[in-house]
Amino acid sequence: MTVRWGRCSNFSKCKEAKRKQHIPIPQGEAFVCPECGGSLLDENDIAPAAASVVASAAPGKKPPSARLVAMATALLLLVGIAGYAAWGRLHSANAAVGKAVPKAILRLAGSNTIGDTLGPAMAEAFLKDQGAMDVRILPGASPLEKIVEGVLPGDSKASAITIAAHGSATAFTALADSSCDIGMASRKIKPEEAAKLGSLGDMSSLANEHILGLDGIAVIVNAANPADQLDKEKIMRIFTGEITDWSQVGAFSGPIKIYARDDKSGTYDTFKSLVLGGKPLAAGALRIEDSKALSDQVAADPNGIGFIGLPYIQSAKPIAVSEKGTLSLLPTRLTVGTEDYLLSRRLYLYTPSNPNNKYTRQFLEFALSKKGQDVVGASGFVAQNVAQVAQTVSASAPGEYKAFTKDANRLSLDFRFQSGQTELDNKAKVDLNRVVALIADLRITGDKIMLFGFSDSKGGPSANQSLSLSRAKAVEEQFQQRGMSPAIVRGYGSGLAVASDANDDGQARNRRVEIWVKK
Fold it and tell me: What's the pLDDT score for residue 430?
């Protein structure tokens, strides 16, 4: 396919012009910008002009100055490099199908955990939900980039959603330089990142921060490794290099080989925060950018240990994780869904509060809907669609709590709160409607609903009991506003910790309201 290369000069209105993009146009098609429709400057005319300058130095002609020759040579080189790079992008995505590059209607950038499988699957489902035909996922310019394209109703040409999954940190740099519409992150935005994006709104608000789903960071080993559970302290000591042989944790005699994600990874950022506690990763750790590749290498190494998102366990073996005073838990849909698993985390989408791109809001609405959450679950993550789950209660639970829950099922999510507050967090505010929808669908009456509040142990017993009850009543009020009156509302203070109160993350997990339904 012969193409002409152009550049848009409509700098006041066109993003392609502002980004100085090199735009390929198939021979015979209108030589206009696919973004704004304006005429393009023909780059094919630049090289001959530059070449003529160099040719003027031929014998028999007065040679130009050395500086002029150097400038012309540099210009030829730049045009060649730019043309080759743009051709490469075109070729990787479209040469196999021999067609023009589709217009990008939406651009996602950031987390590899989201962008590897879930992002393309969600984009594919979204385009189909919009009525698009011939929807397919194509490779991008690198293994961490993908293009999802389809022909929308009323269009004759394909439109595309581009996904660049180079790590959570790149979500915020891409939002800052307007090279993406939606930032994907497998960790919460940092204060310094949010400060740089102040022009887009309050990045911690419901308008900017959207929880796509839940994930558990699984600590994985080779399937033959006899280690079945480790506490957080031992995991920390392994990954910081303090423990170097499997015999030191009661497994077998052999050197421990550490595998870890790269520095741009949100998975690594979360693991560093939840487990390493500010200590550096062991110097000999093998750093890997791709989640699947890391899991494969651990699965193939009898001495290996690594950490990875829930969908990427594959052939490796996850181990149960505990910390002082808590049960060892494996990362499952229930333990991650309720966020009781110590290494559970949230997956985020970040956007401007008032996006200019109409598809941004449409994509978010779809991703957070039941259809979108079904895609989250099918991709191996934990969806936020609510379900009733049978659960065995800890023997250390308060007696009244054990009596109430004996013939009841727990809902697969909890409501959580900020320290000392009774206001629900962003996830809980959205989850309320999901819970009410489930209760309505199953025709569950208010006399079967039970709410149990818990706190961390920072305050005294009396204050904690009062605060936990206030949180349960805050959720009760939300139910009442939606036409339901729970039968039992109790607060048990810090009486049933799911995590250690020695750190902020553990305290946050303990500040919760559980929802139970009588059978």
Answer: 87
Which regions of the chain carry the CATH code 3.40.190.10? 105-211+348-371, 218-330
Residues forming beta bridges with residue 162, ordered by sequence position: 107, 147
| Nearest residue to 363 (alpha-carbon basis) of 178, 150, 181, 201 | 181
Identify the CA nearest to 432 among candidates 389, 486, 381.
486
Q: Which CATH number describes the domain made up of 105-211+348-371?
A: 3.40.190.10
Q: Quick check: 484 and 436 in contact, CB under 8 A?
A: yes
Name residues of the chain where pLDDT drops below 50.
1-3, 45-64, 66, 68-70, 72-99
Please give the model's pTM, rounded to 2 decimal places.
0.69
For the chain, where do the domains classified as CATH 3.30.1330.60 start and end? 386-518
pLDDT value, residue 51: 38
pLDDT at 20: 59
- Reduced to 3 states (helix: H, G, I; strand: E, B; else coil), residue 128 is helix
In Å, what is the CA distance from 428 to each residue of 126, 342, 410, 416, 452? 25, 19, 16, 7, 15
282 Cβ contact list (under 8 Å, min separation 6): 239, 240, 241, 258
Instruction: Judge whether 203 and 194 are in contact, CB under 8 Å.
Output: yes
Task: Using the structure block, give the residue that is written with the tokens 């839940």.
Answer: 214
End-to-end CA distance of the chain: 65
| Structural tokens at position 192 | 């310094």
Residue 409 neighbours by CB under 8 Å, 6+ apart? 388, 389, 390, 391, 516, 517, 519
User: 386-518: which CATH number, 3.30.1330.60, 1.10.10.60, 3.40.50.300, 3.90.480.10?
Assistant: 3.30.1330.60
* DSSP codes, 437-484: HHHHHTT--GGGEEEEEE--SSS-HHHHHHHHHHHHHHHHHHHHHTT-
pLDDT of residue 72: 46
CATH class, 218-330 region:
alpha beta
Residues 376/213, Cβ–Cβ less than 8 Å:
yes
From CA 316, how far away is CA 331, in angstroms rounded? Answer: 13
